[in-house]
Hints:
The chain is built from no helices and eight strands. It is mostly beta strands. It is globular and about 45 Å long.
Amino acid sequence: MYSCLAVRDPQYEGEYLVGDQMGSIGKFKMDLARQKHEDTFFGHSGGIRSMEISKDGKRLASCCADHSIRLWDFATCKAQNILAGHHDVVVSIC
């Protein structure tokens, strides 16, 4: 299962996030003619189930099969907080 999110902030127009089964989230810039891999969020150890960007476009929240939620700095792709200890897969975040 893959998780995909289109970034709706005009500042990041054309950017998409794709979460994979290995626990990483790829940041891509796409238009009709091409796609470019911009960066990657690394840290989860299981499949990404859901992602959401904060209203100000500065943070990304992701949840995963590794029973955690991570809060990321969107610009640097670095984890700021890890919410761990859930007893099962975290499947959705909003």
